[in-house]
Amino acid sequence: MKHILDNSSRLIKTFNSITIFEKGKQMGFGMPYNPETTDIYNLSNISSEEIPKLPQSLASWLREQDQESLKKWNVTTFPIEDSQVYSRLALGHYFHAQFDVIIKKLKAEGFRVNALVNCTVTDILLEIKSNTGKVVANNGDYKCSKIVIATGHNFLNTDQPVTVIMEPRGLLKKFYLVNRNSIILRLAF
């Protein structure tokens, strides 16, 4: 979304409508930082100065928040520093706020933005004749000229090692099925 905003004067000539599908209740948090999937004691692994440029830095945004919110997010060390690592909850609320800012700016630039929550995408179909795609979701079908896929995370309770039948020179011993979209290779040297 930030890339679209940064290039809005050029991209608005190519498309002017954006539909975002979110399986969860709230948009913009990111799975590791969402209040539904983390708790107050989980720290993020990134400081304000390491986050790619968004409308406002994490540290600057945290400095503007009230004490009650900071306490809910386990931000208890003051002053707030750019190099400090804060809770995943704080980072999630920051990402959510920055997402909202970017969406408002995109709308001000003339984009129509439709953010759908509680919306599970079940399929994406390519329509070759029209060079378009169709997103099939639990609440309907959406015809699109361009589709960007961000699959997110889907952690299993435990890794499921699977032995590989053909091993190239004995290097590849096992792979771990993480979810339907990705694997982790374990190499033995």
Brief descriptors of the model:
globular, alpha+beta, 3-stranded antiparallel beta sheet, disordered C terminus, 189 residues
User: What gyration radius follows from the Cα positions, in whole Å?
Assistant: 20 Å
Uncertain parts = 162-189
Strand content: 25-35%
Trace the largest sheet across and list its strands.
5-6-7
Largest sheet composition: 3 strands, antiparallel
How many domains in all?
2
| Mass-distribution shape | globular
Count of DSSP E strands? Answer: 10
Secondary structure class reads alpha+beta
Could you report the average pLDDT, rounded to the nearest whole number?
A: 84
SSE order: HHEEHHEHEEEEEEE
Helices, by number, come to 5
CA-to-CA gap between the ends?
41 Å
Helix content: 10-25%
Fold and architecture overview:
The protein has 189 residues and is of the alpha+beta class. It has two domains: 2-117, no CATH class; 154-189, no CATH class. It has helices at residues 2-6, 8-11, 58-63, 67-72, 88-108; strands spanning 17-21, 43-47, 85-87, 112-116, 121-127, 132-137, 140-144, 160-163, 172-179, 182-187. The strands form four sheets. The chain has a three-stranded antiparallel sheet, with no helix packed on it. Strands 8-9-10 form a three-stranded antiparallel sheet, with no helix packed on it. A two-stranded parallel sheet has the order 1-4.
